[in-house]
Design goal:
The chain is built from eight helices and no strands. It has helices at residues 11-17, 22-28, 40-47, 51-63, 77-110, 116-151, 155-185, 197-232.
Length: 233
């Protein structure tokens, strides 16, 4: 991996190799989950970023002592799937109902002065609908198929894995795209002068939710899914 210059490496590969670099990409506004197939050079050109400066920050992170607790790429797939369910799936299930409530509330109260809130509330309803079914299919269909294949290779599990992952990737793109648009619309969750406490809680929760989704999708798109597809092919 070291033979390939950072500028030509895929962002998802860099973060999968050392998860701590995610903070560098997040600070720069670079999508490391759904946009993980993009190279560092391409991302810097698209966002008009200083590539040399970004690469220096990445190298600085990679040189610091690493904690094996974050070495997701070396985890066994069964353990990684259980971690995703118990950490990220539980968070999504617990947080989305609150987000639907908060965004609907501030849209009804502040929508006249801030019409973007009405669109944000609609987007969160759509994300809620999509992710609720998405998590169910992962827990009841995809993840069991991967565990079955690990224990007893068979063609039925391989077919399920291939078809489900193809669909899951599209659903990740949808949810990630909606959250990215909310981030842009709110200028990074910037609060207006007339923001009430519910407004503040809504935006804080939105930011935390987006941050969690970035890690969640990264673990699946850039680590779990490629390894599962390798087993299925």
């Amino acid at each position: 991996m070291e033979e390939l210059s950072l500028g030509k490496m895929q962002i998802g590969e860099i973060v999968a190799d050392d998860f701590r670099t995610a903070s560098v990409f997040q600070e720069a506004g670079i999508d490391f989950c759904c946009g993980g197939k993009q190279s560092v050079g391409e991302a810097c050109r698209d966002l008009n970023l200083n590539q040399a400066e970004l690469e220096q920050k990445i190298e600085a992170v990679k040189r610091s002592p690493i904690s094996q607790a974050l070495n997701f790429k070396d985890w066994e797939l069964g353990f990684l799937m259980d971690y995703i369910v118990n950490t990220h799936h539980k968070y999504v299930k617990a947080t989305l109902p609150d987000l639907v409530f908060y965004t609907d509330k501030i849209a009804s109260v502040h929508g006249a002065n801030h019409p973007e809130l009405i669109d944000i509330a609609k987007k969160i309803v759509a994300v809620n609908t999509e992710l609720t079914q998405h998590l169910k299919m992962e827990e009841e269909v995809l993840f069991p198929a991967i565990k079955t294949l690990l224990a007893n290779p068979n063609e039925a599990s391989k077919a399920t894995i291939s078809s489900e992952i193809a669909r899951m990737l599209g659903e990740h793109d949808f949810a990630g795209g909606e959250l990215d648009e909310i981030n842009r619309t709110t200028e990074g969750y910037k609060l207006p002068d007339d923001a009430c406490n519910t407004y503040k809680v809504a935006f804080q929760t939105l930011k935390q939710f987006e941050d969690d989704i970035h890690v969640h999708v990264h673990l699946e798109n850039n680590i779990l899914f490629p390894k599962a597809l390798q087993l299925a092919n």
